[in-house]
Each structure stands twice: as C-alpha cells, then as structure tokens.
Please model this.
Amino acid sequence: MKGERIASTDNLALHCQPTSIKVDAAGTPNGVTADAFRVDEDGISTNWVEFSGGFAQVCALFTTLRTVRKSHMVGLLAINEVEDVGRGYNKDLQALHDPIEDTPPNPGHALIVGAKPSDEALLRALALLVNVQNFA
Amino acid sequence: MSVRQTRLEEAILERALYSDAAAAIGATIGLLDQTQQDARMGLTTEYRRLEPSYQRHSTTAPQGHAATINAASAFDVVMPFNGAVYTVFNYSMLTLNGSVVDASLVNAQRCSFINVAGAGGTAQSAASATLSFTGPNITFPSSSTTIPAGVCNEQSLVMVGDPTTSPRVPSPILSKYLLLLAARRAVLSETQFASLARQLRALLSDLEEPSTLDNARSVGSFRGLVKFLSERRPSHPSLSISKHGQFVASWSPKRRAELSLSFADAEGGSWYALSLDDQLNDEGTFLTSTFNMPAPFGSWIMQ
Model:
C-alpha cells in the first residue's frame, strides 16, 4: 500500500552505477559514495527487497527499469541501520512503500523520507551502510 | 619528428591503451626515456591513430587499395580505402626532452575514407558537414567501388561519416587516463601504479558517455591524486569519481568509518571524515604539500 511504513527488519536496494561506486586496490567494488542516492523532495528513491521476494527478484526488476551494465552493482541497506543513522543526525528517517504504476511499473519502489538533497553529511553516513553486490 | 621517435611514441600509446600488463607500460616509458633525445621541452605534436589496422611510413599508395595520410608532425599511414570503416583517434601529445609526458585525446571519429585524388566534386560528410573540392560529384562508395589511388595526400583524402554503418564510438576515456597514469609511472611505486591501473579499468571501462571526466578539470583532479599518492605514500586508497568529475580517494580504518579526499586540482581539494560508531564527523580543505589531518584522521591513511 502506498505510504505504508516498511518494517525496520527489512532491507532496501539501490541500482548503483560506476559513477557512485568505490573500488579497492584490486579494482573490486567495496562501497558507494553519497552520489548513489537519488534524492528529491519526496525522499531517497530505493526498492523494497522483501516486497519483491528477495535479492534475485529485485535484481530482475531493476533490469526491467534501466539498462544494466556489467559494472553496475546493487547496493543493500538495512532499514534499521538507516533509522539509527538518522537519529544520529537528528533526522526521523523512515522507509515508506511507494509503488510506481507508470510504465514501466515498479511495484517495490520505496522512499527513505526525512532526508533532503542538502543533507550532505547524512548522505555520506548512509553511504557507509551500503553493502554492494553484483547483480544476480 | 624522426621515424624512431614516432615509432616509440606509437609503441607507448599502443601498450598504454591495450596492454593489461602494467609492467609493459612502465617498460615502454623507460625505453622512451633512454632513447629519445632530440625533442624539445614543451613540444606539442599531433598523433593520429587508426583502427583496426595500419602499416607505417609509406609515401606511395598501393594501386587502388590504399592511400596515405602524410601530414607534418603526424604519422604516415597506409590503409585500405575501399570504404572500410575506421576509427580515427586524434591525440595532442606533450613531450619533454623526448619523453611523452602527457597525451590528451582530442576526439575520436568513426568514418570511412575515399580518395578523391584525380577526381573532384563535393563529398557529403554526414559526420562533419560538407567537404569541398573541384570537379564532378562523388558519393559515398560502396565496398565494391574502385577509385584509382593516384597521388594521395591529406587534402585528397576525404573522411565520410556514414550513420548507417558508423555506430557511435564510445569515448576512450579509459585510454586517456591510462595514458596519464603511464606518463606518471616514474613517480609511483609498482603497487600504486598497478592498483591505479586496476581501479581506472574498473571505474572507467564501462562508463556511459558523455563522460564527466573528459575535461581539463578532471585531468587536474587525477594529477592531484597521483601527486598525493607519490608524495605522501599512504596505504593505497579506495577510489571513486564524484558526480562533478573529481577523483576521490578514501580510506576505511574500520567498518562504518571513512576518510575521503576529493581532489579539486593538482594541488589539493576537500576532505571529510566520519565514524558512525565513534560519532566523529569533520571536514575541511587540504593542500597536498602541507597535508596535515587533525587527529585521529591523519593516521587513517596509513592503515
């Protein structure tokens, strides 16, 4: 349901492009930068992993929404950690279900609300929480 | 430019662009340092490179199937001209005492060539407007078109873009930065050089175009990164690129903590550090020459 608060025990996923990925000395992705977050006035755009049925399913959904290249990654965020970090910055961060019915549809779309584009320090902190994975 | 010099510069570009072996790039740089003695400081030359294949240095075009580009300060190139599609990379190269110290890609163009020596007219270039010469019209040749080679020079050789057979060529931004890295091989350790090469490949090989990195400011940022690594010799950082096209080095001494340096230019940039578990959060600007992070962040780059 649109606007439903997502449980703290669930997880969010981001489609990450090379322009927001960090790589270690071996060239292996090991994190993201704050640029991984697409923030607008509604919040930070993500996808609800459990709603889609799991990691593989959310990867499959991403491939229907955007071009996926071999260098792209999926970033995973635990909602309880997002909420904890928000409290550290005096922000009430919440994950809300925000299904998109337009074409192409994204029924698992979710928003992290409570952050603004200008919250640079908060976005950097959130970036530290992201666990990057290859597309399934 | 001597034949030997051009061959060496060709070799460095070839290896820097296409070799996966960092050692090969370094070896080529070393070769240049030892053998090129006659170039003057600050000399800027043009380099034109063609794919998929070519031979060097021929002033006579084989009848009917080759033409020669023969421009001052550029390579002589022999190539088939029967409508085959080539990619032309134009570089501006900076040499210092005979060594290539910098090479910037000016442009890359997918095109075919027709030789109009002995003919005339107006060739329509779909890629870059109309090229004019005297005589009757010539249209884009099919693969079976035969045009006598005659006397060929750059003026008689017309590049004709063909959108139906010339897909958009990705900007070889990775090549550009590998060249920049190769030119600075001497100031980096083996580990730093190899690590940076791997990181550039990971970040740039699949970058969507147009790239935010194809500008002088990003090149300056990359130089700043290399200068910092060479002068400060930290543990090798993670690397990323900001949405503004700046190179960003970061170190994570532990989970949920990070020091990040964003290089604005060759001299320095901005930094931030945070540790979620220790509730540390600070930021500022830095100069590589006087780099001095407040405690405890300064030690993080050595861990």
